[in-house]
């Protein structure tokens, strides 16, 4: 059993030792190790609208809390005198071996956190061999991020829009980018009710942010001279001028005029999602690509069964980090029943994963891997690529230590025997 390469996320002891040795010389970690400290440091660093969008959730954020509570409610149960000096953290998914059971979740609009956005995250993921799931709402085009990552693993998250030519075009581009899987997100057919953004009246897409996949898509661009803007021109105000400046800046980056950018923001808003997408539609995606398809946002076991019957390849149990329905069930709470219903399909999980011990809990409950969400965006905000790398290293280091302390030799052997 092989350990991850030294360039990989790394075994826990060395990371922990490194932090303490650095501390002897007065050097502190680049970003807070404590998850709540990490969030607070990002809040101090970011402007209010950026932090609201990245950190916020739906309604009173009760589902965000439920995600954390679900992890708190699961208790690990270690065994003694059966441990190992080193652990094998690797996992296999769809014929690929990854160094640890951790992927980077698709997060839109990363330019809110850092100017280098998805490029910095891609480089961090590549440095560690951890797969990065590119978002449909990315700030940098998939081709550029893929180029920045070399041969390192990348997946792609798809939103299925009403302009199906664009959706189909994304799938072609994804294949050309060397993605190893497509993740179809099903829980954002409508934008959730998010008071933090509503109170600031801020939706990044209307400012041209988070549209890089669309603005570089030939099919999407072909619409920009034909789609009509809604009538009625608002009176100029300082805020509107700021919005125009943001649209114009994004237009310059992607070779589009301000008028085209206004149309792009309107066309995106009108077409990015299909609230009436049905199970039968999945057969078209299945025909378009031979890549593994995972459905993200599954919570009900019957939906997992349906996914298996429809020829899907995997499931991501998720409630979108509590950003969609306030009051929906915590993601980890549904994991065991979804795993049971999914049969042979690999089940991954996100929403509320904050620590290495959380990774161990999800795997003990049957997840094959987890997606890390907001924590890496906070690392990005604080220290760019290096901040993202450090957040991943810390989570993986704690996971490795947790395995060792549980008496497990490998990530794969985690199971109900490790739960109280
Ligand atoms: C700022 C932000 C943007 C997101 N954008 C997307 C997206 O474009 N596509 C998607 O499938 N999920 C998106 N998500 C959801 C994440 O992929 C993931 O499900 C969630 O962040 C996990 O919860 P956690 O942040 O509590 O770990 C986004 C989440 C955040 C916080
Ligand atoms: O912010 C999100 O969580 C997200 O995924 C999204 C994507 C497209 C439109 C609005 C929100």
Automatic annotation (TrEMBL):
InterPro entries: Aldolase_TIM, Alpha-hydoxy_acid_DH_FMN, FMN-dep_DH, FMN_HAD, FMN_hydac_DH_AS, LMO_FMN. PROSITE patterns: FMN_HYDROXY_ACID_DH_1, FMN_HYDROXY_ACID_DH_2. The active site is at residue 320. Residues 27-420 form the FMN hydroxy acid dehydrogenase domain. Keywords: Flavoprotein, FMN, Oxidoreductase. One of its GO terms (molecular function) is oxidoreductase activity. Its cofactor is FMN. It holds the Pfam family FMN_dh. Gene3D superfamilies: Aldolase class I (3.20.20.70). Glyoxylate binds at residues 53, 159, 194, 320, 323. CDD domains: LMO_FMN. Belongs to the FMN-dependent alpha-hydroxy acid dehydrogenase family. This is L-lactate dehydrogenase. It comes from Deinococcus marmoris.
């Amino acid at each position: 059993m092989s350990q991850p390469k030294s360039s990989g996320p790394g075994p826990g002891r060395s990371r922990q030792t490194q932090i303490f040795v650095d501390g002897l010389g007065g050097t502190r970690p680049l970003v807070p190790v404590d998850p709540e400290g990490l969030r607070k440091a990002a809040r101090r660093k970011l402007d209010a609208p950026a932090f609201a969008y990245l950190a916020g959730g739906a309604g009173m954020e009760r589902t965000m809390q439920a995600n954390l509570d679900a992890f708190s409610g699961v208790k690990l149960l270690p065994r003694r005198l059966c441990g190992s000096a080193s652990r094998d953290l690797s996992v296999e998914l769809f014929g690929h071996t990854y160094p640890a059971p951790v992927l980077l979740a698709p997060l839109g609009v990363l330019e809110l956190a850092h100017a280098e956005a998805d490029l910095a995250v891609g480089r961090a993921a590549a440095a560690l061999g951890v797969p990065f799931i590119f978002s449909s709402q990315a700030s940098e085009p998939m081709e550029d991020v893929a180029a920045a990552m070399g041969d390192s693993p990348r997946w792609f998250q798809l939103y299925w829009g009403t302009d199906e030519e664009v959706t189909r075009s994304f799938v072609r581009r994804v294949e050309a980018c060397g993605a190893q899987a497509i993740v179809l997100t099903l829980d954002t057919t409508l934008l959730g009710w998010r008071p933090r953004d509503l109170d600031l009246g801020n939706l990044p897409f209307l400012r041209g942010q988070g549209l890089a996949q669309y603005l570089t898509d030939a099919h999407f661009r072909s619409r920009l001279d034909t789609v009509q803007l809604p009538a009625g021109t608002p009176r100029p105000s300082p805020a509107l001028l700021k919005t125009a400046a943001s649209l114009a800046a994004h237009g310059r980056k992607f070779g589009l005029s301000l008028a085209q950018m206004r149309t792009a923001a309107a066309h995106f808003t009108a077409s990015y999602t299909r609230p009436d997408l049905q199970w039968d539609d999945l057969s078209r995606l299945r025909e378009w690509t031979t890549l593994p398809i995972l459905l993200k946002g599954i919570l009900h076991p019957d939906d997992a069964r349906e996914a298996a019957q429809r020829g899907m390849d995997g499931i991501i149990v998720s409630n979108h980090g509590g950003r969609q329905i306030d009051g929906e069930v915590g993601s980890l709470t549904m994991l065991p029943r979804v795993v049971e219903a999914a049969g042979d399909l690999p089940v991954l999980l996100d929403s509320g994963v904050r620590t290495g011990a959380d990774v161990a809990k999800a795997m003990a409950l049957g997840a094959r891997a987890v997606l890390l969400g907001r924590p890496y965006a906070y690392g990005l905000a604080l220290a760019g690529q290096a901040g993202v790398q450090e957040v991943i290293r810390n989570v993986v280091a704690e996971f490795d230590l947790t395995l060792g302390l549980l008496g497990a030799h490998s990530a794969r052997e985690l199971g109900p025997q490790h739960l109280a």
